[in-house]
Each structure stands twice: as structure tokens, then as C-alpha cells.
Amino acid sequence: TTLVGTMEAWRSHVVCSGMGLRPRQFEYHPTVPGMMLFGTLKGEVVITKHLENKIVHTFSTGLCKDRQDSILGLCWLRKSPEKFIAGSSKGVLSCCDLSQLEPYEPEEPQPPPTAGPDSTASGGGGGGGGG
Predict the structure, then answer these.
(1) What is the tens place of the pLDDT at every residue in 97-128?
(2) Is there a contact between 38 and 23 (Cβ–Cβ < 8 Å)?
(3) What gap in Å lies between CA 12 and CA 34, rounded to an integer?
(4) 3-state secondary structure of 77
């Protein structure tokens, strides 16, 4: 017999679902229950109240200009709990201070551009020359 037929479904609680982020590493806050930070594959750090599915702060660490420098390590500083260290796949360490961060404001989705009556008024309506 195989184990597949006897295994129970894995029970879990989803935190921070549907945000389009790709977490790689996470760390719970040492003194604030329910606060967690996680690093992404694109070099972002997200601070969240995960039980509320709420982002507190999100920012790029600026560790790599091409944003392909994954966050591999995170650590809250126990003697200064408003600070943490983020380490990247390219070996860069960054010390971050929550008190220096701007409050998180989610980006409002922008409506797609519409083709209105003035969309052809710019004089480019014919696909002319290019060669």
C-alpha cells in the first residue's frame, strides 16, 4: 500500500493571501504578537499584521538595482525591536529602522486607458513611415 491513500489533508491558516508577493523568508516580531516581516524573491521587505491580513509597511531594500536580489535572511534586533536586518542573495546586509519608514499606503488600481474621441487628435492616426 502507498501512503497517499492514508494521508490526511494538510490543515493550515493562510496569511496575507492574494497580495501578489512572493515570500522567501519570514521572521516574527520578538515583542509584538501577530507582527511578521517577510522578504521576497524580488528584494522587497514586507511588514505585516498577518492575523489581520494587513500590510503595515512594504519597501524595496535597495539592495540591488535590478530587483533580482532575493531576501534570504531577516532578523529583528531584540535590544532594539524597531530595527531589523535584511540579508540578500548577493551578500548585502541592510539594517532597517521602522521609525524611519513612511506609513504604508496601498496603490490604487489605475483604470486602463480608454480610446476616447481625442485619442486620434494627436495626429498619429495612420501608422505612417518607419523606415
Answers:
(1) 888 876 666 665 555 556 555 544 444 444 44
(2) yes
(3) 16
(4) strand
Which residues pair with residue 59 across a beta bridge?
45
Max distance between CA atoms of the chain, in angstroms, equals: 73
3-state helix, strand, coil in the chain (%, to 5): 10, 35, 55
Cα distances from 1 to residues 4, 5, 59, 83, 95, in angstroms, run 9, 8, 50, 52, 52
Reported as a single tens digit per residue, the pLDDT across 69-86 is: 788 999 999 899 899 999
Q: For residue 38, what are the β-bridge partners?
A: 26, 46
| 57 closest CA partner among 69, 67, 44 | 44
Residue 29 CA to residue 40 CA, distance in Å, equals 17
Q: What is the DSSP string of 89-121?
A: TTS-EEEEEGGGSPPP-PPPPPPPP---GGGGT
The residues with which 77 forms a beta bridge, in sequence order, are 80
CA distance 3 to 66: 44
Question: The dihedral of CA 119, 120, 123, 127: what is its sign?
Answer: positive
Distance between CA atoms of residues 86 and 58, nearest Å:
13
